[in-house]
Amino acid sequence: MVYVDEIDVDQEGIAEMTLDENSIAQVARPGTSLRQATAKKHEGPSPAVRPVTQSGRPLTGFVRPGTQSGRPGTMEQAIRTPRTAHTARPITSASGRYIRLGTASMLTNPDGPFINLSRLNLSKYAHSPNLAKTLFEYIFHHENDVKNALELAALATENAQFKDWWWKVQLGKCYYRLGLFREAENQFKSALAHQDMVDTFLYLGKVYARMDQPLTALSMYKQGLDRFPKEVTLLCAVARIHEEMNNLTSATEYYKELLKQDNTHVEAIACIGSNHFYTDQPEIALRFYRRLLQMGVYNCELFNNLGLCCFYAQQYDMILTSFERALSLAENDEEVAEVWYNLGHVAVGIGDLNLAYQCFKLTLANNNDHAEAYNNLAVLEMRKNHVEQARALLQTSAALAPHMYEPHFNFACLSDKIGDLQSSYVAAQKSEAAFPDHVETQQLLEKLRQHFAMI
């Protein structure tokens, strides 16, 4: 219950992002990088249908470490980028998270530390394999002392005459934690030469993903699937990489294959459900979310999704009860804000604009950085001919979420309407950069260019 799973817990903090000295190609070829914005290439729903993250990828159906943020280009973006659905502040350093996770399991001792690591003779313990493994687990996971763990692993590997795959994996984990990815890669490959293990394939894939080599990571996972056919964790890892690379069709295929092996895999069900929802099949998405409910998943996000599916599937009797349940289960202000935002959408759908206005206002009362709510409030203000309020709201929305095309496009339309053609042109160009295939933006730009040509 207290073990920290190294395979899943992987988040790049601001320190890791800004102090990363590993050089990668600045302009990678399309489809070969996880860090390049992928907004220009769309497979499946466009940003007009499915919202995107700052890195230009569609939102996933399941919050995982690193999925929503991508890799921000600047420190300012890093601070603004939502890390998960819960908070807009990224962790300062991933190592801090490891310490918190590890120490949560150890009772604090008033007499001092459980083991005084500075006094241990590591070379002595390295000669006793079983004791050395126990000590390594304690040092690495509970004390988060990577330096001592690395020293012990190196001594134990040497003592085992470099033939023990387990110690090589531990060395790789230490190098990975220290940011030495090439050394970690060598250790994991060496471990695989001795013994095929699912974990080792997963670690290697993680190393390649961090080095921004998703295609190499995929080939490594495929090798793992050749040795361990239909292994659930490997299928899930492949699906995640496809999803991050915007290959939503391939990702869904792998999630479906995963469900054939493990029909209670929450991540796969949630991702397939969200994919059906955004491909205009809310009834099928509803079946997947109901399956999660049957399995015992009982949280705000699930009822929020159920409410939206019921609305788009025109099952109006269930909408309000689902959203009421979501509000009662919300654990923080951000979750409450998301529920009110979706209720605002329902109100717009049934034509009650006063209720929609109140809902979006409640969204901002709970989460002052909700860019979509600012955008939608601006549209409602435009309908009332409150031009200045609408402009201010759209500027706020565009500043909070420069990766969204809607506030830029709405600002361009509003500026064009009141005769501020220069502002309209600048905003339309930003909209085009965020969503190149948006037809109405192209039409507006063409109209403005013709007007400027006539001048």
Description:
It holds the Pfam family TPR_16. There is one protein chain. With 455 residues, this protein is mostly helical. It has helices at residues 14-18, 75-80, 94-103, 122-126, 129-142, 146-159, 165-177, 181-194, 198-210, 214-227, 232-244, 248-261, 266-278, 282-294, 300-312, 319-329, 333-350, 353-366, 371-383, 387-400, 406-418, 421-434, 439-454. The protein has a domain at 370-455: Tetratricopeptide repeat domain (Serine Threonine Protein Phosphatase 5, Tetratricopeptide repeat, Alpha Horseshoe). Helix 5 runs antiparallel to helix 6 (146-159), helix 9 (198-210) packs antiparallel against helix 10 (214-227) and helix 20 runs antiparallel to helix 21 (406-418). Residues 83-89 and 99-108 have low confidence and may be disordered.
Low-confidence stretches: 83-89, 99-108
In DSSP terms (H or I, runs of 4 or more residues), the helix count works out at 23
Mean pLDDT: 84
CATH topology of the domain at 370-455, which one? Serine Threonine Protein Phosphatase 5, Tetratricopeptide repeat
Order of helices and strands, N to C? HHHHHHHHHHHHHHHHHHHHHHH
Radius of gyration: 25 Å
Distance between the termini: 71 Å
**CATH homology superfamily name of the domain at 370-455:** Tetratricopeptide repeat domain
What is the correct CATH architecture of the domain at 370-455?
Alpha Horseshoe
Main sheet: strands, sense, barrel: none
Share of helical residues: 55-70%
DSSP summary, beta strand count: 0
Q: Beta-sheet strand percentage?
A: under 5%
Structural class: mainly alpha
What coarse outline follows from CA principal-axis ratios? elongated
Keywords: TPR repeat
Pfam families: TPR_16, TPR_8
Organism: Engystomops pustulosus
InterPro entries: BBS8, TPR-like_helical_dom_sf, TPR_rpt
